[in-house]
Amino acid sequence: MSLLILIIIFTAVGGVLSVMAAAVFLLLPDHRRAAVLPHGISFAIGALLAVAFWGLIPEAFAQIKPEQFQALSGTILAGVLGFFVLEKLLIWRHCHSGDCEAHGDEDEHEHDRGHSHSHGMAKSAGALIILGDGIHNFVDGVLIAAAFLTDVHLGIVTSLAVAAHEIPQEVGDFAILLHSGYSKSKALFYNMLASLTTVLGGVLAYFGLEDLHDSLPYFLALAASSFIYIAVADLIPSLHKKTDMKTSLQQIALIAMGVLLICSLHGIAHNMEV
């Protein structure tokens, strides 16, 4: 079997398998899923921040020379600010199409505008998580292809490690998309679509790894900035709606669990790749 076919098969396994495993979350009854969803948001915050700070950013800096550190840091900063602007545009587009600035009774208008604004923010968070996940999965595909081009056995192990590493993050992505108002079918469709960028990254890396290698750290930096922005700007503020001690402790514990699980899986994956 040709190396290209192996890369296509195992990048598909690395991307799609993790989505299908995480999709079990969608099989829960509506009332059970509604009860689990807030906990999933807390877990997702920890997972997203851990992927960014424990995995993507260190990996990006490890692949560049010291004189490029400032440029890479600037890319992360530009990414965070860029996603802020993108979210503003998405919210503005939603409000414009929904006439959230229409004239009318002031109190009623303020209520409708607030509702439309909140809904627009939720929708934009969903759009950003799909975009960020697509970039992240593309980079995974490049890494899997690079491993296969080094050694077939290493490629197989790396693709399985990527799948295992992605499952908890994909569960968090489903939670975010459902929280953003996506239906179960749309959440599955968009997550599956984002997972296919793993195959795209693998195929492009096979044909031009030399050219992609120089830009790979900057893809990693953009993926990290999207995850940081989503966690800090969109998800953490939603946790402040409930401030009682029991809920706050649960949120902190679940965020810590998301961080610890991602860090543990990242360590396992690194040991397997070595």
UniProtKB/TrEMBL annotation:
It is found in: Membrane. One of its GO terms (cellular component) is membrane. The chain crosses the membrane at residues 6-28, 35-57, 69-86, 188-209, 215-236, 248-269. Signal peptide: none annotated. It comes from the Bacteria. It is a multi-pass membrane protein. Keywords: Membrane, Transmembrane, Transmembrane helix. This is Zinc/iron permease.
